[in-house]
Design goal:
4 helices, globular, 3-stranded antiparallel β-sheet
Length: about 200
Amino acid sequence: MPVGADARIVPVGPQQWARIKAAGMARSGCPVTRTDLRRVEVGYWGFDGAVHRGVLVVNADVAASTARIFTRLFDARFPIHRMRPMEEYGGDDEKAMLDDDTSAYNCRNAAQQNAPPTASPHANGRAIDVNPYENPWQDPRCHCWRPSATYGTHRVGKGVIVKGDVVWTAFTEEHWIWQDITVTDWMHFDTGYPSKPLPTP
């Protein structure tokens, strides 16, 4: 196990890209290709108090920022339940949320709640959802909290994000936007909608 966060930015390899394609996350109409994406491998503190190794797939233009953010969260010992790329869930956002997975890139299919792919922060690899169970969103299709109502209004506990805390600060100081959506979405950070790169320093 690497020491510390040990964030590393590497290309998305052919085997992972094949899994992404098999999950339907790379198809006609999706705005990015393998060469546009990077794999950020980083250590994180799990809910079990142990250090784990996670993976986030993001756009190349936000990879360095993502590495800095999650290094900062590691150093603060902020707990993250899971951090697996979305193809491990077949690109199914509902399954990933139910598993409390922190994830990024996903060009979702039409059956899932989604913006048009060309505008979507997730489809462009410029959005990250952190601890979905502890930070649910309000789904306008059912006017309910997903994946669970437990923390919809109860904003205290392990892995919960609130304005001004270490997660909010780590992202916003890198110019990411929290809840950049028309409904409450506690888990969601992105770089703007329609999707766009971070501002040039």
